[in-house]
From TrEMBL:
Record keywords: Coiled coil
Coiled coil: 79-125
Subcellular location: Cell envelope
Family to which the UniProt record says this protein belongs: Belongs to the membrane fusion protein (MFP) (TC 8.A.1) family.
One Pfam family here: HH_MFP_RND
Major place of residence: other
Protein name: HlyD family secretion protein
Length: 324
């Protein structure tokens, strides 16, 4: 064999060997998923008309920023009525705790004395007619009426005495307890209306981006209908499905390389959540090679450099430092 031919054969052998080694190189572990944001839906607390919208769709907002205002007129009226009811119950409770006035007690004593005087007069009249019964000087009907009047007068005395005793004994504890419960109910109702009034001013619960405003200025959304939908967080996160073979080697806090569709440069991320149970087909229903179909839901937090990426883009995740 000539020297030139031997050289060409050696070069071909080296290239084939390098190609084989390159083809046998193990790819780093990967997982697929999509970019996602945590969606926050802010519902209408009451069926009131929208009187102001302070943001627009796509706008970045901070926590506590005003987003929308619903008409507070009706709720303010309900609050005023509830507060008036609470004040009334508070005064009723104070009246019961203070007990009867001295003037009321004096009035009851005077009523008792008047009833006693009438009773004595009625009893005396009956006693005067009683001896005349056997001499036929008085009709039996007149005697019966005098007897009934005397008994009625005695009953009036007993009623006046009971009324006086009630005032002297003061308010019963059960009445005070009932008044306290009524006051608590009225106060709670006023507090509920106050909370509802505050909810009519819809604010951002945390920083994020306005994704959708389904209703427009002047609309009246039903109770519970979403009026503002936010995408929470300064940047999206990657939601991936981790294959079963890689689950044991991945932990919360591990570094990842996230490749986003349409972007050449990967984004650095860290595992922030990793489910302990598989998704899709349960493990107990799989046998043999089917066990490779197990997957575990995981979330990869991305940094501020991914803030402008939209939700829904496909992603591919490589585990930093996993390749051998």
């Amino acid at each position: 064999m000539s020297t030139a031919r031997k050289g060409r054969h050696l070069s071909a052998t080296i290239l084939f060997t390098l190609a084989g080694l390159s083809g046998c190189a193990k790819k780093p572990p990967q997982a697929l998923g999509t970019l996602e944001y945590d969606r926050i839906t802010l519902p209408a607390p009451a069926a009131e008309r929208i009187v102001a919208i302070d943001v627009r769709e796509g706008e970045q907002v901070r926590a506590g920023q005003a987003l929308m205002q619903l008409d507070p007129t009706h709720t303010q009226s309900e609050l005023a009525a509830a507060e008036a009811q609470a004040r009334q119950q508070r005064e009723v409770l104070a009246e019961l705790r203070n007990g009867p006035r001295a003037e009321d007690i004096d009035k009851a004593r005077a009523s008792l004395r008047a009833a006693q005087a009438q009773a004595r007069d009625a009893r005396a009249y009956y006693n005067r007619l009683l001896p005349l019964q056997g001499k036929d000087y008085v009709a039996a009907a007149d005697l019966d009426r005098a007897r009934a009047a005397a008994g009625d007068a005695d009953g009036q005395v007993a009623a006046a005495q009971a009324a006086l005793d009630e005032l002297l004994h003061g308010t019963r504890p059960e009445q005070i307890a009932q008044a306290q419960a009524a006051l608590a109910a009225a106060t709670a109702q006023a507090s509920a209306q106050q909370v509802l009034l505050g909810k009519l001013s819809i604010v951002a619960p945390l920083a994020g981006r306005i994704d959708n405003i389904p209703y427009k200025l002047g609309d009246q959304a039903p109770v519970g209908a979403p009026v503002v939908i936010m995408l929470a967080g300064a940047a999206p996160y990657a939601r991936i499905y981790l294959p079963e073979q890689q689950r044991a080697g991945v932990h919360v806090g591990d570094a990842m390389q996230v490749f986003v569709a349409g972007r050449d440069t990967p984004y650095a991320g860290k595992v922030r959540m990793l489910r302990s149970e598989p998704t899709f087909t349960p493990y107990y229903a799989l046998i043999g090679d089917d066990a490779a179909r197990l997957s575990y839901l995981a979330e990869i937090a991305l940094g501020p450099q991914a803030a402008e990426l939209p939700a829904g883009l496909p992603v591919r995740v490589e585990f930093a430092g996993s390749a051998k």
